[in-house]
Amino acid sequence: MKRSSALCIVFVLTAVLILGVGMIPPAHAQLELKLQKLQESISGLYDGHPVTLQECIEVAKVGSATLGVYEEDLEAARSEKRAAKAQWLPDLTASAGWQRSERTDFDVDDYSNFDIVAGAPMIFVDENGNFLGQLEIGGQQAYQPQLVPLGTHNEKVLQTFSSATLRSTWTVFDGFGRISGIKATSAALRASEAALEYQETVLVQDVSEAFYNVLRAQKQVEVAQETQKVAQEELKRSQTYFDLGIATRSDVLQAQVRYKQTQLDTVRARNGERQAFVMLTHLMNIPGAQRFKLAFDLPGDISSAEIPELTSLLQEARKKRLDLVSSREQLQANGYRITEARSSYWPQLSIFGSASYNRSETPYRFGAQKNRSYSWGAQLSWNLFDRFVTRNRTRQALAAKRRAEYNLRQSELVMESELSGYLNNLIEAKESFVVAMETIDQAKEDLRLATERFKVGAGTSLDVINAQRSLAQAKVDAVNAVADFYITRAKIERATGR
């Protein structure tokens, strides 16, 4: 492997990593996209057509910040599952290095050329080291040449090293940790999906409740305006009777007070309608929006509406309610986490391979200046004592599973309590409506009789005013009963997971 090829591999891998990180969208990009879609969906509210409940729900889903949080949790769970699957792949590590160093050696000895005269004589010795004589060449005695020191100097040494390495390791067995990790992340992903869907049902319930509250407020405004109109007519009638000498001044004053009270009731009803609309637009994530007309009107009769049985509701909720589904999946995920934590008790087996290239430029050579090497093998490791780290992780995973069990049981108790309360409220709303409608009929007749008595002087204006109040209250009670019925039914839809 050439140095250039090794460095190219390193640079390519580094570039891929940098590009991969760079492709991650900014944290605010998703929010900006959600707000853009919200603006597009809002335009449909002002196209001239009355807005339905389903349209309000769709707009609320588009811009919901709460759903956005759960959507990000879902994406994180998907990423965690992908990461768990990727643990079965071998890892790949690339490294490269370059180093240049400069060293100064002080007081290095200097020598002259070889000096034969100053050299030591060359002699012969026997095997025991005894002197046999001096070597002669051409009749002349021979000497060993020696270097003659002349002084010292400072010497600088420059050295350059460069290297590139590519290494891969694949874990063959890790004590079933990866298998448990995939199962745990899969269950956690299903839990996140169920949690997101459940939050959508909660949002549907909240928007439905706000929608029906707007309709309730509109009906209350109508009742208040009708009552004000009746009070105004009664004031005119009292004034006429007073002019004719049939009624007293007190009757006129009571009629005037009653009329002012109905005006105040109308003002309050209109403010209640505005407040209800503000709450609806708040849940739709468009606070301060201009008024738009709703397409639905409260039904006038719920006396024949069916009331479900509690037993069937509980059975349906245990199967379909999404927060229970999420809790069960989270419990299963925590169970797999225990096995994953215990995997460290097992030995681990891995195989590895690496390739490296090295180059050195130095006056001190210990082998070749360029070399490449390949290595591969297998490694078995077993952590016999890790200072109770694995034991602590296992205990934490077990505690998380038990907490999930308690949370699931608590959610089931809450579900049972909610459905029991909602069913009672549904029955109350239906029965209240029946009573209110009967009261309306009776109040109308009472108002007619009180008016007739007042005409002939057999009654007072106070009797008429009381009858008007009773009729207005009965109408309000009927409106509230219908609105409460539909709001409670929406809560039952959410509580059963429909």
Features:
498 residues; alpha+beta; Outer membrane efflux proteins (OEP); four-stranded antiparallel beta sheet; 20% strand
Gyration radius, rounded? 46 Å
Q: Using the coordinates shown, work out and report the CATH topology of the largest domain.
A: Outer membrane efflux proteins (OEP)
Average predicted confidence as pLDDT:
83
List low-confidence stretches: 6-23
Task: Supply the CATH class of the largest domain.
Answer: Mainly Alpha
The CATH superfamily of the largest domain is Outer membrane efflux proteins (OEP)
Structural class of the helices, strands and pairings? alpha+beta
Distance between the termini: 65 Å
Number of domains: 2
Biggest sheet features: 4 strands, antiparallel
Distinct helical segment count: 10
CATH architecture of the largest domain: Up-down Bundle
Beta-strand segment tally: 8
Q: Mind sketching the topology for me?
A:
Layout: H1 3-22, H2 29-42, H3 53-63, H4 65-86, E1 91-121, E2 123-125, E3 131-134, E4 136-137, E5 140-141, E6 143-173, H5 177-244, H6 249-283, H7 310-320, H8 322-342, E7 348-361, E8 370-381, H9 389-455, H10 461-496
Antiparallel strand pairs: 1-6, 2-3, 4-5, 6-7, 7-8
